[in-house]
Design goal:
With 651 residues, the chain is an alpha+beta fold. Helices cover 47% and strands 13% of the residues. The chain is built from 28 helices and 14 strands. The protein has a six-stranded mixed beta sheet. Strands 2-14 form a two-stranded parallel ribbon. Helix 3 crosses helix 7 (156-168), helix 5 (112-136) runs antiparallel to helix 11 and helix 5 crosses helix 28 (643-650). It is globular. The two termini are 33 Å apart. The relative contact order is 0.15.
């Protein structure tokens, strides 16, 4: 299900920031493509009436019917000064994660058919990135086009702005310090991103849905509140368009490329998946996605990796409906379960067999973990305490990450457990799930990175505990986290609304930590590894700023730190130095996990809100710790470089 994200550690290599994912905003301006309308004041033959701002204001209102805003501005204006741009694009502030190189042995050792297939898979992933930019913000593509024209003219401000735009895959993004970076003046981010009308506020959204439900328009409302639609105005109502229909041409291109890849790839199972996925991209039918997802979740021994990830962390509009008592009652009566909108990411990789074999070691322990979940008799889990766990796992060397996968926004995806619980492959076909781990995101190889990590430890951790820190232990913890998403209540958490993702990510972390002693006793970890996992988790969980409520992964880090401080499992000195009581950490995680499961079982928005707000407390100790981290780390954001993908897409 869920995306675990590396949010920057000092070395820029982060640990956790985005995987159920997030954001918030102001009114956006979307540029309509019809230049004859956009620049009305220049069309003298239309008469003086068309010259005034008054008409433009009226046209702006009317144009919202089509989810676009008419502007009389020919060009965008850059929002960041040259000084700020130079700082944010400097290597000390903008870290780089490099995907596979053109001469990478992982690529060179592939069969010729798989090399050929990679070309088509990368091309499909690139187009998926274009689609997701439109879901993210209606200004993204027009601003990208503007930047490219300005760069061609030699505009230095445009060159630097484009570096940030390409890194965060959009015009608006939160940085590592939870500051919203807006690259164009007057362009901000909305709660509904690019999937709802830009002028739609929560109160109007709720009132429209109430009216539609009272008029018996259940099917229309159900489409508006599902995870795969783009919503537009239709008079005084709203209408939903499946994203396959909305972006028909691009999805058809992707389908063509996947089918071409299936004709040359050497693995029959993988080819079958590609054909099923291609079919799902041609027709707006979630059941077609379900068949593709079910097949994808069975893939274990394939040379290549291709994923269309569908995660719903970024939509801050849909789940607000459970906050309105009248609307919630009408939805319950109609049997409508609102699900936040999916944002789309592309992943292309080569399976690393050695890394995969190591990860697969945990599969034998999944039933044991399921048996040890709190209150497990009260709910169904995706992993059964007996029998087949229906979960595959692979370690992937990455060729390309695009769209939602490749957006480096305060952090970047470290691993994923998919499909999510709301997907039909799980709810209707009883399918399984699959974990994919990202080697190029997690690996720390350079001496410079190791030196930076040591500086962070010196500035933040009791020297006696340095010996337990092991960056590889972060990977072991992540394996527990991702499998944790398959444990606990399988359904019924939608009523938690905007707190659902925060609580789910919190649950996955606490499962990983709470199970450490059980897995050590069972022989999966040594005592030394157990201590390394506990200590590394505690260090990497410390943040350099208080996050916004829209950052699910980082909010849950604050919640955990506050909870562990209260329980005495960790302490932070007045000087901002962390100390960890190694024997209190696991019992504290078990206690928090029990509380989390109870919240999920309640399915109640007020209960979830109280639990999050009671624990989302940024203390003076955390603030001092943040100062210490910032004293040794300048990193504000990051970017991805994909040299092999860049070559393949040209072929």
């Amino acid at each position: 299900m869920i995306t675990k994200v590396k949010s920057f550690k000092l070395l820029s290599l982060p640990i956790i920031a985005g995987g159920f994912m997030e954001i918030n905003r102001i009114n956006n301006r979307a540029n309509i493509n019809t230049k004859e309308i956009k620049y009305l004041p220049e069309r003298q033959n239309l008469g003086n009436f068309y010259q005034g701002e008054k008409l433009l204001e009226e046209l702006n209102k009317m144009s919202m019917i089509n989810n676009v805003n008419i502007s009389n501005k020919k060009d965008f204006e850059f929002n960041l000064s040259m000084e700020e741009l130079k700082k944010r694009t400097h290597k000390d502030y903008l870290t780089t994660k490099k995907m596979l190189a053109v001469d990478a042995p992982e690529y060179l050792n592939l069969a010729d058919g798989d090399k050929e297939a990679l070309k088509h898979l990368v091309k499909a992933a690139v187009v998926l990135g274009k689609i997701n930019m439109q879901l993210d913000n209606p200004n993204n593509l027009p601003f990208k086009e503007y930047l490219e024209k300005e760069v061609a003219k030699g505009n230095e401000q445009a060159k630097l702005t484009k570096i940030l735009f390409d890194a965060q895959k959009g015009v608006c993004s939160l940085d590592r310090e939870s500051n919203m970076i807006e690259l164009a003046k007057g362009v901000s981010e909305r709660a509904g991103k690019g999937i709802y009308p830009q002028d739609l506020e929560k109160e109007e959204f709720h009132s429209i849905l109430i009216k539609m439900l009272k008029e018996g328009k259940k099917e229309e409302v159900e489409k508006i509140l599902n995870q795969r639609s783009v919503v537009e105005r239709n008079g005084d109502e709203l209408v939903a368009i499946d994203y396959i229909d909305k972006f028909k041409e691009d999805f058809t291109y992707m389908a063509d490329e996947l089918e071409k890849a299936s004709e040359v790839s050497t693995n029959a199972d993988f080819n079958e998946f590609l054909k099923l996925q291609a079919k799902a991209l041609r027709t707006a039918d979630p059941m077609l996605d379900a068949y593709a997802d079910k097949k994808w979740a069975t893939l274990q021994d394939t040379p290549l990796e291709f994923t269309i990830s569908r995660e719903n962390y970024s939509d801050e509009m849909t789940e607000t409906v459970v906050e309105n008592p009248e609307l919630k009652a009408l939805l319950d009566e109609a049997g409508i379960v609102p699900v936040a909108k999916d944002f789309l990411g592309g992943r292309v990789g080569i399976i690393n067999k050695k890394g995969t074999d190591a990860i697969l070691g945990v599969k034998n322990y999944l039933p044991l973990m399921a048996k040890n979940m709190p209150f497990n008799s009260e709910y169904e889990q995706n992993i059964s305490p007996e029998g087949d766990s229906k979960q595959t796992m692979v370690d992937a060397d990455l060729v390309a990450v695009t769209g939602d996968q490749g957006a480096y926004r305060a952090g970047i995806t470290l691993a994923e457990n998919l499909p999510n619980d709301d997907k039909w492959s799980l709810t209707k076909l009883d399918g399984g799930r699959r974990n994919v781990y990202h080697r190029q995101i997690r690996l720390i190889t350079s001496d410079d990175a190791k030196e930076k990590m040591q500086k962070r430890l010196n500035a933040t951790l009791n020297p006696e505990l340095h010996k337990y820190y092991n960056d590889e232990a972060d990977h072991w913890f992540t394996v527990g986290h991702e499998n944790g998403h398959s444990l606990g209540p399988k359904s019924g958490t939608e009523g938690l609304g905007k707190y659902k993702s925060i609580i789910e990510e919190n649950k996955a972390d606490m499962i990983s930590l709470a199970m450490v002693d059980i897995l050590t006793e069972a022989g999966m970890y040594t005592k030394e590894q157990r201590d390394q996992i506990i200590l590394t988790y505690a260090v990497d969980n410390m943040l350099m700023s208080k996050p916004t409520m829209s950052q699910a992964h980082r909010v849950r880090s604050v919640m955990q730190n506050y909870y562990f401080l209260k329980e005495g499992a960790i302490t932070i000195s007045p000087e901002g130095i962390l100390d960890v009581n190694m024997e209190k950490m696991v019992p504290t995680a078990k206690k928090m996990l029990e509380e989390i499961i109870r919240v999920q079982l309640s399915g109640d928005f007020a209960t979830g809100e109280k639990y999050v707000l009671d624990n989302f407390v940024w203390t003076p100790e955390m603030d001092k710790m943040a100062e210490n981290i910032k004293s040794v780390s300048k990193t504000l954001n990051g970017k991805v470089e994909s040299p092999l993908a860049d070559e393949l897409v040209k072929a």
